[in-house]
Amino acid sequence: MTATETGHASTNGQGPPGAGHVIDHSTQAILDRMAELHPTGQAPAAIFNDRGIFELEREKVFAKSWLYLGHESEIPEPGDYVLRYLIDDPFIVIRSEDGEIEAMHNHCRHRGMQVCRSEMGNASHFRCPYHGWTYKNDGSLVGVPVQKAAYGDTLDKSELGLLKLANVDTYNGMIFGSLDDDIVPLDEWLGDIRWYLDLFTTRSPGGLQVVGAPQRWIVDVDWKIAGENFIGDSYHTLMTHRSMVELGQAPSDPKYAMYGEQIHVPGKGHGAMCIGAPPGSGLPPMFGYPDDFIERARESIPTPEQYEVAKETRIGLCTVFPSLSIHNPIRRPDTEYEGSIPMMTWRTWNPIGPGKISISSWFLVEKDLSEEFKQLSSWSYLRSFGISGTFEQDDTEIWTHIARNAGTFTGRNQTVNYQMGMELEPDEDWPGPGVAQPVNFTDANLRNFYSRWLEMMTA
Amino acid sequence: MSDDVDAAMRRQYEVEQFLVHEAELLDESRLEEWLGLVTDDVVYQVPVRINREQTGETRVTGVRTDSFHLDENRASLQMRVDRVATGFAWAEEPPSRLRHVIGNVRVAAPGEAVSEHLDLDALGDDDLVVRSNLLVFRSRGDRPEHDLLAAERHDLLRRVDGGFRLARRLVVLDSTVVPTLNLAFFF
After folding, report:
1. Chain B 48-87, CB below 8 Å of chain A: which residues?
2. For B182, which residue in chain A has the nearest alpha carbon?
3. Record: contact A119-B48, CB cut-off 8 A
4. Same domain as A157, residue A79
5. CATH number at residue A286
6. What is the ipTM of this complex?
7. DSSP label at A287?
8. What pLDDT is attached to residue A251?
9. Is A189 helix (H, G, I), strand (E, B) or coil?
10. Is the pTM of this model over 0.90?
């Protein structure tokens, strides 16, 4: 790891995971096949369940990306922290005494024990339970038991602070970190997807709050299958979520998720969907938020063009490459509620093995909405998405079987199809940045996601 | 045998019979019948659990009061049950093989508060506060792997028409990261 005065945690310098990792033949064959198939709108199924691909993704994609760590509202006060993972490394994401956000490797510099043993809290110090080395909440090593007797004058505590991520930055309250010391600035990494992130994050002058702690659970699926679903697969809704259509909890128009616009950011892998109202559906504007919310949004959203797009959107989705997704749909808390109460969930799809992820799912709501609305919105969330969501339950069930097939003897040699909408011309009149398609029944965002993946995997 | 012990044994027996019957309905996915056992004002919650050091008196730490895996009322439970009945709820179609194993059933004497997690303002004269330990075994598909979840349930049982109805259930999971792909079943 890069040794500086305070120490940095990164994959550069002396750090793991091994730079110059030798790619074995089978992994290289999968990548070669991907390069061959990708221009035709296909991909080898093996990318979804393969040990070599998984190892290489950690090194080439996840260690070289800006990854989502949390939201500023989770750590509002000095000393507030949450424990979050980059790949499988635990990091203490903390607000310092002077209000800065930092991420420190939860790894004692003495023997490597975890010094923080809670998922969230407030701390002035972290004391290692092994030998008692004690760090201030800015990471500096301030206490070594019986230092004089044990080490004499040989221990330079200033060199032994907790290792920090060199790159931690925020966009509209979203905290990202990177293990790569040489990564481009966050603003450049996000690029044009910022325009669409604004639609979810700038609607209220009071800003967003994460409510409580995330649901976390394990699913036997590849992270890309989850990410591609949220970036541009509105086509699955009519079959996967048919139970909710039958119950009247999703529109019966089989094309309901087709309307609106699908946008991707070339070269960066990010994408968004702004799904509009089906003709004649009478769905209220701007995701179904209350009128006073919409008024505040008019003032708060950066540009009139963004306000108009938000107003026309009923179901918003976004994936920030590689592993952060956002979903913000019009919804109802239960079948008896008359009217609409939208909800917003953010989640990370963190790979923990070939064809295996850990999902963290957060619920967010604007701070200046009423307590009653926040309660109803949390119900709209819990009953549709997340681990028990009546929509998402069926996604995870289906995804696991895709990942399983991708790892079988012959299944791994099959291809998967991303050819929908290859003939479509971009919508030149769309007011936002990126490449926009005038319908959501297209795999354009998915193809762009995999272009970025392939570029990073073969870099 | 004193009257007190006799009454306590009768309560214990009645409560255990109720819980065992309920578990059978859940195991066999007879969900419409199960709904018949809950009150119209039922509150059914599974809070998120996080890993935390002891900060207060209890060593049962990290039970969130602001974040849930399930937070249900009668209408939303009905929606979940109706969903399975559509035949298109892929998460439970084909159905999981479920086994609810209940033990350590603790029945409080009427009016006695034995759960720090239940709002006892709602406790009526005939209501019983019951805690039980639960293991849920879940098997899906044609592979031998299974999911196993452990929890303590805090229930409020109300006497209705000579039987019990579930008026409140709070499920304190023993997991932080939940080891199953979805919660498409009830605890």
Report:
1. 48, 50-53, 55, 62, 64, 66-73, 75-76, 78-80, 82-84, 86-87
2. A387
3. no
4. yes
5. 3.90.380.10
6. 0.95
7. G
8. 81
9. helix
10. yes
